[in-house]
Every structure is written in C-alpha cells, then in structure tokens.
C-alpha cells in the first residue's frame, strides 16, 4: 500500500496581525497571511520579483502562540499541510480556498513591542520570549 505526503514549508513575512477566534466548542483558531517573495533574472538580465501569498490556519495551542507572539512584518517559518476549503455563499455561488494548516511555527525575526512608550527600534529578541515556537502535534485527527 502506498502512502501519500502533504507537507508544506514556507519562510516569509506576515502581511497582517494574526486574528484569533473560537469554534462553537471553544477551540481556538488563528488565521494570518504570509508573503513569500522570489527573485530571478530573465534572459536579458532584467531583475524580476514575484510575491506569493499563503493563508495560514493554526489550531489549539499553536493558535494561541501565534496570536500572542506574531505581528505584521515578522519573518516566520511555517510548516504544515495544504488543505482546500470549500463553501457556498448566500447567493449559492461555490467558492474554494487553499490554505496551509500549520503544525509548526518558528519566529525568525525579532518581535516588535506594541508598547509605543518604548524607544524607537527597541524589540525583544526571540530568546527573551517565553514561547517563540509552537507545534500542533496531536491536534489533528489523522
């Protein structure tokens, strides 16, 4: 019997602050977007840059960690799996969205303090944070 593999690893910058909500059963879920850019030179030597946006979904403890520690602009490593979410709107139109369901997150840049009373440029390094990384091991029924 063959086994499938669905694994995604990205490194990019948060495009917005994470948003956390709770399912009706009380399970936390956090969503945010990560931009991943790549650059290349065309045959005529012209430099090109392309940015791909990934919608990220984190559940349970990882959702809480992402909401607490991540902010817009931070560089992060996200590992997870691709999932296609399908829904129908009020007008009956069908929609789908591909998202990364995260099972691991590592902060790769400094976290900027939200306290505006701090000096400009001050930031806490990941080593100063209580929990800069997280996983969702055991959170998924697969």
Write a structural description.
- The chain has 142 residues and is mainly beta.
- The chain has a single domain (8-129), classed as Nucleic acid-binding proteins (OB fold (Dihydrolipoamide Acetyltransferase, E2P), Beta Barrel).
- It has one helix spanning 60-69; strands at residues 8-14, 19-22, 28-41, 47-59, 75-88, 94-107, 111-112, 123-124, 133-135.
- The strands form 2 sheets. The chain has a 5-stranded mixed β-barrel with strand order 1-3-4-6-5. The protein has a two-stranded antiparallel ribbon with strand order 7-8.
- Mean pLDDT is 83; it is low at 114-133 and 136-142.
What is the secondary structure topology, with strand pairs?
Elements: E1 8-14, E2 19-22, E3 28-41, E4 47-59, H1 60-69, E5 75-88, E6 94-107, E7 111-112, E8 123-124, E9 133-135
Parallel strand pairs: 4-6
Antiparallel strand pairs: 1-3, 1-5, 2-3, 3-4, 5-6, 6-9, 7-8
């Amino acid at each position: 019997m063959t086994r499938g593999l669905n694994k995604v690893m990205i490194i990019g910058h948060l495009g917005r602050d994470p948003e956390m909500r709770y399912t009706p059963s009380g399970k936390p879920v956090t969503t945010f977007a990560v931009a991943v850019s790549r650059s290349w030179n065309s045959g005529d030597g012209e430099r090109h840059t392309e940015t791909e946006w990934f919608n990220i979904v984190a559940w349970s403890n990882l959702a809480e960690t992402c909401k607490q520690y991540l902010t817009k602009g931070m560089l992060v490593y996200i590992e997870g799996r691709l999932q296609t979410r399908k829904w129908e709107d009020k007008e009956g139109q069908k929609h789908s969205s591909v998202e990364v369901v995260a099972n691991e997150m590592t902060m790769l840049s400094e976290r900027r303090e939200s306290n505006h009373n701090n000096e400009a440029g001050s930031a806490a390094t990941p080593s100063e944070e209580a929990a800069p990384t997280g996983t969702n091991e055991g959170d998924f029924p697969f």
